[in-house]
Amino acid sequence: MKPTPYLKFHLPNSQPQVSWTLAEGNYTHVYFRNGGYYLLSIMLGTICQRFP
């Protein structure tokens, strides 16, 4: 399985807590509880397959 681009490596005890996601066509916005977010050029379905 290929690694997902733009998602930084996290230690097992410091995984970010995803608050919610938003899909817009081929893009996915991932919002975290600490206020940060990522804009990914990957469909939400692909992310869900890689991170169950």
Distance between the terminal alpha carbons, to the nearest Å?
Answer: 13 Å
Q: How would you sum up the major sheet? A: 3 strands, antiparallel
Q: Which overall shape is indicated by the principal axes computed on the Cα atoms? A: globular
Rg, Cα atoms, Å: 11 Å
State which percent range the strand residues make up: 25-35%
Please estimate the helix content. Answer: 10-25%
Determine the mean pLDDT: 77
**Low-pLDDT residue spans:** none
What is the count of helical runs? 1
Question: Going across the major beta sheet, what is the strand order?
Answer: 1-2-3
Total DSSP E strands: 3
Broad structural category: alpha+beta
What is the H-and-E element order?
Answer: EEEH
Q: What would you note in describing this structure?
A:
There is one protein chain. This protein is α+β, with helices and mostly antiparallel strands and 52 residues long. The chain has a domain at 17-50. The chain contains one helix and three strands. It has one helix at 44-50; strands at residues 18-24, 27-32, 37-40. The protein has a three-stranded antiparallel sheet, with no helix packed on it. The longest helix is centred in the last third of the chain and has 7 residues, at 44-50. 4% of the residues are buried. The model has no long low-confidence stretch (mean pLDDT 77).
